[in-house]
Amino acid sequence: MSISPANLADVDWITARLAERREALRPLAPVFWRPAPNAAERHRQFIKYLLTDGGGLAYRTADSVLLATPRGDGWLVDDLHVRDQYWTTDGVDLWNALAADRRAEVVRFVCPTYENDRAEFASNIGLTVAETWWLIELESGGGETHVTISLPGADAVTVGAPPVYAPPGPMLFLASPEDVATAVPAALDKAPGMGCAGVVVNQAASEQSMAEVLRAAGLRPHCDFFVGTIGEA
After folding, report:
1. Are residue 29 and residue 96 in the same domain, yes or no?
2. What stretch of H or E contains 12?
3. From CA 144, how far away is CA 157, in angstroms rounded?
4. Total domains present in the chain
């Protein structure tokens, strides 16, 4: 398998490959992942920035791509596209290329819960789930971002989508609810009037007891965040 660092000549190809992944995920959360009208160009500009002034790392094969974005405590890997049948070949080779450059550095690996092969890969390379986002999509919208609200049992904030997405409103995000049984019904009551397109609750891995309450309220596991250090697959 031929692995090479990606460069500016690969930007259009990377943009197209990652668009395929977004399109495959879209039906699974059509409100949360509603694409922006100019999603491809927005992502293209971000990838170009990442490969120049953004300090990012990128690797590709003939079919797969991995982008690593620097963050304060290490690296974020979200833009990784590998077809299901290639995780044990392309996936391993891409990860090992990253490990050759950034061995033992901290990584946060984004894994939508709908991608079982991706989650298995994350576990196989020694990463563990630190947090899970639970989601319920709503029919409301039109609200403002960065609005904070104190709910019974939690503080919440309205959060906008990344530029490649355009849900009809922000998500009401509960980062660390103290009393989820009280906070979630309150959030579901307040969110439509705030013009939110959904409610997202962050569940720390240590808070497994939250799951029953969240599921009963109509939320579903939406995205796992794996953490660990970068090493060979």
Report:
1. yes
2. helix 11-25
3. 10
4. 2
